[in-house]
Amino acid sequence: MTVDGKARRPVDGSHLHTALSLAAAGVPVLPLRAGKVPFGNCRTCAKNACGGRPNMKTPGPCTCPGVCHAWAAATTDPHVLNSPQWEAAWRRAAAVAYHAGGAGLTVVDLDNAAAIAWARETLPATRTVPTTRGEHWIYRGVMPSANKVRPGVDIKSLMGYARWLGLGRGAMVALPDSVRALALTDPSPARRAPQAVSASLGSQSGECCHRTPVFLDRGIAMAEQRITGAREAVHATVYRTFLAVLSTHGRCGCLTEAHVARLFTAAQAKGETPRHCTDAWTNAITTLGL
Question: At a CB cut-off of 8 Å and minimum separation 6, what does 257 contact?
Fold first, then answer.
């Protein structure tokens, strides 16, 4: 096929067929070029000079019909997917991606064996999709996207895209607090609660869901290891770890002062002050509504 005497690569029918099938199911899709990255903006949209698409974080008047603005270009409209403006992208496409948040989903992207092992020990089982180096764990529900929430772990949801790799296996479950907590950062000092608030959770009286005391002990040990292994952003790591522990164990009253002391000791060994530990713990309790 030629246009004005120039050779023209045919559209990859498999990618377009996949995109149309997903779009028909309500999943916003877009093509990816080699390297698993979106196509660059056109000249009009370069550096978001157009103001961005209406569904981007900074709304603007963009009416570009092309595949611009990365995840914000994702669509379920078959007319757009089949349009002449998208045809060039489909000819060069190396994969199909989807806007996870736009589909009401959150993808926990596990990039290696260590990350997978952590997820199996820490997160609720859900639908799992194999990737080139790891796995995607897909949950029902949305949250902010965040990269490098821990070694080998990214979160793709609102304002983020994930490569389509098939339906996967397993039943999809609701997005748990333990995943939401991974993307949270410690509140600013102005929002911190007074230091005098107790770190104890002894007043909690929910039904205990732990199979055995070993389950709780393993969780505390893993939390200690996460804090101890932090090589950067220790402040935020401590807070996210406290959130993860409390989201799993904070509602049934099983946490004791001894468990809290173990976490505080690990944090202080990384240079955190006792006051920060108390403030971070209290803020985590407040964030989770405990």
Answer: 199, 200
